């Protein structure tokens, strides 16, 4: 059965050969976490905790400190998207000439391909945070927040809705709970924040007299206290802020190029009037050391 196509358009006037496509959220989170490619189903990621301590001088060998090596599994799941368009749906459209020749209108194909790729990015942006592979084993993998919720070592402060009135105090409290060793390590933690809370931060900054957030000049540097980069993640649920190092959050896949590859099958050669679109890819997410992550969210 072909993908359902609702084709309620006006046919008055000359067709311009363009489609206005629906807006999609960018897959910003993947740009701000550690990307692990070429995983064959499952990868072991080692965690190393090295507790250095000084010892008294001795003529004999006197080991000091502790080294703890543990591991986490980053497991991939395979996903696919299948869509099918029947040429007969467009017989009464301005693209009828192409349809009668056994083709789909090129501009529509381009728009559909772009929508599929951007739609995958949007779905993954949501899933990387709130996916639940247990509740939906065939269509989702466990997102970061799902993993944090199950990990008792992750620091999870009691959360309330973030507003313009409390956003400063909330961020201050979150940073205060980041372990000192993480906060002042060479690799500083990133503040991952949902769009609504970021807007609250900008509005509060304007109200405090910081005109940088109001004028139409260069993009505002997304930093907090001049120390911590801020990553605005459209897939995060509202009132969510996570402080973690980039190296501690992982997104895995097999072949990265698969995320930009849509296969098109012309089924007219088999006596059908259909065009099929197929996309297959692997994905998974995992975090490393839970005790080094502060996750503030009303989603829990």
Describe how the helices and strands are arranged.
Layout (H helix, E strand, L loop, with lengths): L33 E3 L5 E10 L14 E10 L1 E10 L9 H5 L5 H25 L13 H7 L16 H11 L2 H4 L6 E4 L1 H13 L15 E2 L3 E5 L7 E5 L4 E4 L10 E4 L7 E14 L6 E4 L3
Parallel strand pairs: 1-9, 5-7
Antiparallel strand pairs: 2-3, 4-11, 5-8, 6-7, 8-12, 9-11, 10-11
Task: Write up what this structure looks like.
The protein has 6 helices and 12 strands. With 300 residues, the chain is of the alpha+beta class. The protein has a single domain, classed as Major capsid protein gp5 (Major capsid protein gp5 fold). Strands 1, 4, 9, 10 and 11 form a 5-stranded mixed β-sheet that branches. It has a 5-stranded mixed β-sheet with strand order 6-7-5-8-12. The chain has a two-stranded antiparallel sheet with strand order 2-3. It is globular, with a radius of gyration of 25 Å. About 3% of the residues have low confidence.
């Amino acid at each position: 059965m072909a993908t359902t196509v609702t084709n309620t358009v006006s046919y008055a006037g000359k067709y311009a050969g363009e489609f206005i496509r629906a807006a999609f959220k960018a897959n910003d989170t993947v740009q701000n976490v550690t990307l692990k490619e070429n995983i064959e189903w499952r990868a072991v990621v080692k965690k190393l905790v090295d507790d250095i301590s000084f010892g008294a001088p001795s003529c004999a060998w006197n080991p000091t400190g502790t080294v703890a090596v543990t591991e986490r599994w980053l497991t991939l799941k395979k996903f696919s998207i299948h869509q099918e368009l029947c040429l007969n749906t467009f017989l009464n459209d301005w693209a009828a000439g192409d349809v009668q020749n056994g083709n789909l209108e090129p501009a529509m194909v381009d728009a559909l391909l772009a929508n599929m790729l951007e739609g995958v990015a949007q779905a993954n942006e949501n899933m990387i945070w709130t996916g639940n592979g247990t509740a939906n084993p065939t269509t989702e993998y466990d997102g970061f927040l799902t993993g944090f919720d199950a990990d008792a070592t992750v620091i999870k402060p009691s959360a309330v809705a973030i507003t313009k009135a409390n956003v400063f105090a909330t961020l201050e409290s979150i940073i205060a709970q980041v372990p000192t060793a993480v906060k002042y390590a060479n690799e500083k933690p990133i503040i991952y924040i949902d769009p609504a809370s970021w807007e609250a931060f900008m509005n509060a900054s304007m109200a405090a007299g910081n005109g940088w957030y109001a004028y139409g000049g260069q993009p505002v540097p997304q930093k907090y206290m001049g120390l911590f980069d801020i990553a605005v993640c459209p897939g995060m649920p509202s009132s969510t802020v996570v402080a973690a190092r980039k190296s501690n959050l992982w997104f895995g896949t097999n072949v990265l190029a698969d995320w930009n590859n849509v296969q098109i099958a012309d089924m007219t050669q088999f006596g059908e009037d259909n065009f099929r679109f197929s996309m297959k890819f692997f994905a998974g997410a995992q975090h490393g050391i839970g005790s080094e992550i502060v996750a503030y969210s009303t989603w829990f």
